[in-house]
Write a structure and sequence with these properties.
Elements: E1 2-5, E2 15-18, E3 24-26, H1 29-49, H2 56-63, H3 68-92
Antiparallel strand pairs: 1-2, 2-3
Amino acid sequence: MFVIPARRSLESASTIRVTDSGAFLAHSPAMRRLNALTLTSVLLVSSAVFACETCRPAVEAGIFNEHFWGRLAITLLPFGVILAVVTPLHFLGRER
C-alpha cells in the first residue's frame, strides 16, 4: 500500500490510501461521519422493514403485481434521459 497526499483544504487534511487491489480509501473526518450516518440509517430502516408481519404480504402483493415492470421503467426513465443529455455534454466539454 502506498499513500498519495490529497489536495489540502483549510478545513481538514486527509490522505488517500491506495491498497494493493487499487481501491482508494479516504480517511477524513467527513468521510467517517458519513460512514457512521449511513450505518446508523441502514440499521434503523432495516429493522422497520421487517417489523410488520401482518401487513407485509399485502404490501408485497401491491408492489409486485402486473404493473411492476412498467412502473419501474417509468421510475428509471428520468435517469436515462439525464444520462443521455449529460454524457455528450461531458465529452464535448473535454479538452483534446
